[in-house]
Amino acid sequence: MIEFLMKRGLLIGISIISFTLLLIMLIPTREIDIKLNIKEGSFLEDLKIIHKKTGMTAWILNAEKAVFTESDEKAELEKIQLFIPENDVTLFADKGIYNLSEQSFTTGGAIKAKAKDYTIKAEMIDYEISSGTIEAAGKIEVEGKGFKIEGRGMKVDKEQKVRIYNDVKAIFYK
Fold it and tell me: Is the pTM of this model over 0.70?
């Protein structure tokens, strides 16, 4: 009798688990909007932020660590990679700050950006995500196949027009 009840209980348990798994598979997958309420002193590891505009990925930000400030509007990031698929550019930085309310990103030190045909090195950058504008106040170096440009201060607009403001030096190779 006990053996019969144990077998029946096991069959009921397996049925419940199977039914639950079936429900999970049938529920339509959708994106969930989550508001994180992270207190001061909290941090996330292996953070990945994907920003989309009109259904297309505008940029992907990866960071090994994100420490949130007391206002919860800014996250101090470490070991950063920012990929912009439209331009096929990946930016690397050791530290930076992501401002959630302004949707802007500022590096806390030297950066290196790599694209198919060129690399950019800068002391620091400000990236305003909403407008797609990138600015650098300090020393800047752009190097590609057959050229190298150095200067101080740079602005890149969303049309990819690059302006270097001061002390511009251009070298072209054959």
Answer: no
